[in-house]
Design goal:
3-stranded antiparallel beta sheet, Protein kinase domain-containing protein, 5-stranded antiparallel beta sheet, membrane, 2 domains, 413 residues, Transferase(Phosphotransferase), domain 1, alpha+beta
Length: 413
């Protein structure tokens, strides 16, 4: 017993009650188990034509071997069939499925599966000379689990009834072909009409592909000759239209891709520029000043040898001050850099790590020398000599301070 059946037992009610043309379908408890049954309409039990038709359907039903057909056996009371016991299985009327799970129509492949299931079931019945007549949310079932289409009672057995509108009461007449309600011919085209009407109802709020919209429109034509001749024709038409639509979409996508490729090709190709030829200007001879007896003194350039003693003394004083500034600044910077090499912590490193750090700091000393020499505007050779002197002096001082020669603080091998 599943959850729905447990709730129904507590309420002492019936599950999935649905009015069929021949009676009421429901799931009810019989001998401690829930079973699907159809209670035959009591008002029809006295109708001889209905009784004969129901008996004929019961005799034929078990011989219909198809996965879309629900089989049943009659229960006879006082010589009359009062109930139909359906074969074991979970069959839910479509109207209850749509009411409880309306989003099912938007599930992937449901439209194709449901449409194909209806047409295949109808084609099977037609191959045995039967017509379902009324495909409606009350008379079409879905099997729990795989949502397969299931059919129960064929309307063609009851075409001899005089009042077809009364037989298909409670809204089911909306899904019956007009010619059937008027007492006309019951054939394959009337089932096509009923299937089209059901599909229009089920997918009324769904985004129907073009292939389905055109198929439903043709299936529900008022004149039988304007409809599809058989379920197979309708199914082939849908498949053909879908195939054509997919081909057109594929072609359109291919065309767009081709245009993008061509556009990208021309976009990446270098543009050829038209270069206008320009005649070069005539070359004019330049005068060689040297040949004309030019002297640098005429432009105010004075050789060093011609400087006065006062100018030479001033230049020497300027150079001395510049070297003093460089010496003070570089000594401070060198002391900072060398302190990173010669300290008790670094001297405990391995020889490899010590050398790596020393090389890095030597580069830093050289960079500081170049920058400070440029700031002080002194000759690079002179700055190098001063820097070498300062580095040697500071190095000896720091080695002596940390006891470079002791084994305890020496560099590890």
């Amino acid at each position: 017993m599943n959850y729905e059946e447990l709730l129904a037992t507590r309420r002492q009610g019936r599950l999935y009650q649905t009015e069929l043309p021949i009676g009421e379908f429901c799931r009810m408890q019989i001998d401690g188990k829930y079973r699907s049954v159809v209670h035959v309409r009591k008002e029809m039990l006295d109708n001889i034509k209905f009784g004969e038709a129901l008996k004929a359907e019961c005799d034929r039903n078990l011989s219909l071997a198809d996965s879309h057909i629900i089989h049943f056996r009659p229960v006879v009371e006082q010589g009359e069939i009062t109930r139909l016991d359906l074969e074991p299985g979970q069959y839910v009327p479509l109207c209850h499925v749509l009411n409880e799970h309306p989003a099912i129509v938007a599930e992937p492949h449901f439209m194709e599966q449901f449409t194909r299931g209806l047409l295949e079931a109808a084609a099977f019945l037609h191959s045995h000379g039967l017509r379902y007549v009324c495909f409606s949310p009350q008379t079409v079932f879905l099997r729990k689990g795989d949502q397969a289409v299931m059919l129960l009672s064929c309307g063609s057995y009851y075409q001899a009834l005089s009042d077809q509108k009364a037989f298909y009461a409670d809204g089911k007449a909306d899904y019956v072909a007009p010619e059937v309600l008027e007492g006309g011919t019951v054939d394959e085209r009337c089932d096509i009409y009923s299937i089209g009407k059901l599909l229009e109802t089920v997918f009324a709020d769904a985004q129907l592909p073009l292939a389905y919209r055109k198929a439903f429109k043709k299936a529900t034509a008022q004149m039988p000759e304007d409809r599809y001749a058989s379920p197979e024709d309708m199914l082939r038409s849908i498949d053909r239209r879908r195939g054509t639509y997919r081909s057109l979409v594929t072609l359109a996508v291919a065309a767009v891709v081709a245009l993008l490729v061509v556009g990208l090709y021309f976009d990446l190709m270098p543009e050829q520029e038209n270069i206008e030829f320009v005649k070069p200007a005539p070359h004019t001879a330049t005068d060689d000043l040297i040949d004309d007896g030019f002297r640098p003194e005429d432009l105010g350039v004075v050789p060093a040898d011609s400087m006065s003693e006062e100018a030479v003394a001033t230049q020497r004083e300027y150079n001395a001050k510049a070297e003093e500034i460089f010496r003070k600044r570089y000594e401070k910077e060198a002391d900072r850099i060398l302190s990173k090499i010669y300290n008790s912590k670094n001297m405990g490193n391995t020889e490899k790590n010590f050398r790596a750090m020393s090389e890095s700091n030597v580069k830093e000393l050289l960079k500081a020398q170049e920058e400070l020499a440029a700031d002080a505007a002194i000759d690079p050779a002179r700055s190098h000599a001063i820097a070498t002197e300062i580095i040697e002096r500071l190095t000896n001082q720091k080695k002596a301070a940390i006891g470079m020669g002791s084994n305890a603080n020496g560099v590890q091998k």
